[in-house]
Amino acid sequence: MSSAFTQADWEAIERTFADVLDLPPSAREAVLAARCAGRPDVRDEVAALLSAHERSGRFLDGAPPLPLGLASQAGIEEGRLVGAFRVGREIGRGGMGVVHEGERADGAFAQSVAIKVLAAPLADADAVRRFRNEQQILADLQHPHVVALIDAGMTAEGRAYLVMERVDGLPITAYCRDHRLSLEARLRLFLGVCSAVRHAHRHLVVHRDLKPDNIVVTSEDLVKVLDFGVAKLLEAEVPGRHTATGPLGAPLTPNYASPEQVKGLPVTTSSDVYALGVLLYELVSGVRPYETAGLTLDRLLAVVVDEPPPRPSAATRPAGGTDPAYDLRRLRGDVDAIVLKAMSKDADQRYASAEELARDIERFLDDAPIVARSPSTWYVLRKAAARHRLTVAVAGVLALALVAALATALWQARVATSQYARAERRFNDLRRLAHALIFDVHDAVAPLDGSLASRRLIVSEALTYLDGLAREVGDDEDLQAELGRAYARIARLQGDPGTFNLGDREGAMVNYRRAVSVLERVAGRSDAPVDLRVDSIDTRLALSWALNRAGKPADARAAAEQALREAERLVTDHPGHPGGQASLAHAHMRLSQIAGVESAEPHALRALALFEELLAAAPDDPARQRQVALAAKYLGSRLDTAGKDAEALPHYERARDLDVQQLSRNPTDRRAQLDLAIDYANIGAIHSSLGQQVDALRLYEQSRELRQRAVDADPKNEFARSRLAYVHVALARVHAHLGHREQTRADATRALELVETLPAADFVRSLYAAEASLLLGEAERASGRGGAACRAYLRAADSYASVERAGQVDDQGQRANADKARERAAGCRR
Amino acid sequence: MADVTELLDRWNAGDGGAMQELQVLVYAELRRMAGAALRDERPGHTLQPTALVHELYLRLAGLREMRVENRRHFYGAAAQAMRRILVDHARRRTAQKRGGAAARPVPLDEVPEAAFAVGRAPDLERLDDALSALARVAPDKAQLVELRFFAGLSAEDTGALLGLSTATVGRHWAFARAWLYRYMTGGHAED
Lengths: 830, 191
Known about the structure:
The complex is a heterodimer of chains A (830) and B (191). Chain A contains 30 helices and eleven strands. Chain A has 830 residues and is an alpha+beta fold. Among the domains of chain A are: 7-55, no CATH class; 81-373, Transferase(Phosphotransferase), domain 1 (Orthogonal Bundle), CATH 1.10.510.10; 385-438. In chain A, helix 16 packs parallel to helix 18, helix 22 (622-641) packs antiparallel against helix 23 and helix 24 (670-689) runs parallel beside helix 26 (718-737). Chain A is globular. Chain B folds into two domains: 1-105, no CATH class; 108-191, Winged helix-like DNA-binding domain superfamily/Winged helix DNA-binding domain (Arc Repressor Mutant, subunit A). The radius of gyration of chain B is 18 Å and the shape is globular. Chain B starts with a helix and ends in a 7-residue tail after the last helix. Chain B is mostly helical and 191 residues long. Classes of the chains: A alpha+beta (830), B mainly alpha (191). At the A-B interface, helix 1, helix 3 and helix 10 of A face helix 2, helix 3, helix 4, helix 7 and helix 9 of B.
């Protein structure tokens, strides 16, 4: 291949090569010579290529396999602690990461677990937050057929892990095959799977990746479904990347993926029903409805999206595949119909829920008419005959029996219909709710930047569904609990003051109240589940906080005291339960903020002690670290307010150290930014009161920078803005101490601008406006701008008046400022 | 992160940077998926790039109707990305081996030809060089090799993408294979 060949030469070489190659080897030499007359170089080239072709064997035959080393994926070292668990040896690797065995190491009790360490570190703060949200929901899924999530968290390197109940057993398909189970036994086993799925759906969790590998039968013949919602958790790995096929990173198992999953439409409870259908197909027939391995893309799409699978009774089993221990013809009719209905391409044609699918299987097992078949008279009669064990051989009896059977069947059909209608309506409400909450709310709210309008819309839509559900919920305690939690979640989205919310305080208050009233009904009893009682307490505390922010301190205090009593009862009923202990600590913390000065300090001390105990049991747990940091901050601020600066400082510093850790783990996490920003400001305030204004200035500036970042990231966020306003007031104060008139003026003005954008009902608005105006007035006066100074003083006096009306002046410095503002304003009026 | 179809539309509209963006997107995503898929590796189950490339297409483009030239660019980018992933990996492995104290450089001419003839996986680094050389002579054949070998597309799929009959794909493939084989086994005169 000398470079002397021209493009035209190469074309000739190619043509000749191709033509000669088609000839039998014996004829090649002659043709080649004839074609390349006058061009020996071309002839030699083609001959060399032909020879290479002959020698090349299976060169480039088949694509190269992917090298294993590409994904060198380390587990975690044995013996290490994650949360309360000690990591044991590696026992497996799956799509999501490495699985280790593990043991509880905190000595509370013996427990052997499986620890899954997710493959990739969570991508960023949003991913972490979503991971935590989901984990909380999953932890609530307690069911005999669901493998329980015991704990989840992050290692020090930021890798997410899940601690689950350890289950040893066989995948359900292998179990059925090895035990040569009868059709009935298989169906009963499958009912267990349905009940697990149904339970999860009622908790608004969709599995998304149901397949035999995720469904295990233990040596006690108990079926257990693994990895509920884990597919959703995994999505957290790739934030904000939504494409036509849905978020990247979620596993897609083509054999079990529904048409909507393949098409990239939202995954719903109905997708799980589809996967259940595929699983059932495989269980009863011994083969999969279709094999997707090795299909070209177009075929894969066609098969999943368009082509109806063969009836299970007509499935072609490979030679030697002797799985079902019964005649496949038994599947004809009912089982075929049930499987195909569950596997409908169109979600609307499927069973509306796992429960309905289960009911049809139960009907089949009871020889009752199934819903999946359109009830021809003959079919109904045949079923009735079977059910009543009628002797159809005797003609006379047959006639009689048919009449009786027909009557029975019709009556039962009517009963079934009305029960159905009700159940279906209820489920559909739930389903719409589930859809709105899980997919729309969660997903739309998850990337927190902006998008306020659509989030509001989603919340109002979810509320419509909830109100519909509330009318139908009746005495069903599970549903009531779910409803209460859903209201609480909505309220939090609307106006949880500690987080980024929709700024709808009134809506939040209404829904917190609804949540409290629903939850206290089901959580009030001492035998209620701990998690439900915890939710009830937490919701009451959230209500208390909302009331306090709305300037209703007496109501707020009453709610918090009620929560404290509930929490004390819970801790008495379940000593040592971390959820109960955390709730109790929360209640103390809330009371330390809103109770009178005299009891603030003991409440804060108690809260801190409780949280420190919890953290000591799991020193790496970021959630517990944050709780300790918050409690330390509250205690510090109580001491600080009481004038005990020196005592407050170590608590503030403890909080700062923990918050620095949090932020270094997730440098873009806005909540962590604000947490640390508050620490800097707290420490700055102490320096300021000790007269170290330059240090104070530096700390406040650090604080301001973090707060500004949070506001820049989400300019509509009122919580972030109010925090930024606060630090500008503080900066103005320090600048005033240092005699920096222009900076005082700049910071006070900025604070006032920010305050303008806060909701009128927010009492901090008056508080910040009051001090900022006073500082501004002083600066203007010192600069000789009397008119501007007077305008500021008048505003300061007004603002202090509303602060006093709201009963929020509890500090001597504030009182002195209020007096000064009034005095200056009076001077101006004169 | 831009959408594949949108990138392709931009590219068709004359935005040269869009193709590069597409290549980066496809590479990053494929790399991530390859890593994830391999963690799922079970004994006795070999994973082929074809599956990954198809899945990538599903993930990035979904079921939306895509014009054939856009599909060609997409698969072209995916095949190139797969080539880079596999070749880079092979390079790193070689580098690691060389780093070892006991390692001793193997002169290229010592590589036995038989290693290819029995259908063993070819030396990807040398294949990469050969493919680059082929691209200088017959770029369309080099692309065909990328699609068939690295993306694992069938002759039919490749033909549909490139607008060639399956028979033509077969002829081009035979030529490219022979050319590369000759280059890699030292039967070329260029140096």
